[in-house]
């Protein structure tokens, strides 16, 4: 059994009305870029705009809203321009 897990920077989509249909505990994660378990967040001096890959809405996020998560490599993943 081989799991293809890596660390990624993610933000949680703010469009709760769209993503919480039927499951109030679900938080849709928008993947920004690949990282590792120890790297610090890149220097983000301002809010970043991110478009959700699922609902299509675009929201602004503060640097403290960017999280690290261990997850499966998303199929067809393209990093956010600030995380390339």
How much beta, percentage-wise?
25-35%
Q: What is the mean predicted local confidence, pLDDT?
A: 89
Shape: globular
From N to C, what is the helix and strand string? EHEEEE
Number of strands: 5
Percent of residues in helices comes to under 10%
The strand order across the widest sheet is 2-1-5
Low-confidence stretches: none
Structural class: mainly beta
Largest sheet: 3 strands, antiparallel
Rg for CA atoms: 13 Å
**Distinct helical segment count:** 1
Give the termini distance in whole angstroms. Answer: 30 Å
Helices and strands in order:
Blueprint: E1 5-12, H1 16-19, E2 29-35, E3 48-51, E4 58-61, E5 67-72
Task: List the defining traits of the structure above.
84 residues; mainly beta; 3-stranded antiparallel β-sheet; two-stranded antiparallel sheet; 5% helix; globular
């Amino acid at each position: 059994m081989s799991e293809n897990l890596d660390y990624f920077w993610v933000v949680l989509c703010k469009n709760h009305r769209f993503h919480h249909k039927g499951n109030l505990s679900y938080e849709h994660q928008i993947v920004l870029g690949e990282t590792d378990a120890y790297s610090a967040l890149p220097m983000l001096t301002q809010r970043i705009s991110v478009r959700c890959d699922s609902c299509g809405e675009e929201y602004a996020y503060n640097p403290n809203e960017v999280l690290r998560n261990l997850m499966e490599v998303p199929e067809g993943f393209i990093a956010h321009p600030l995380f390339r």
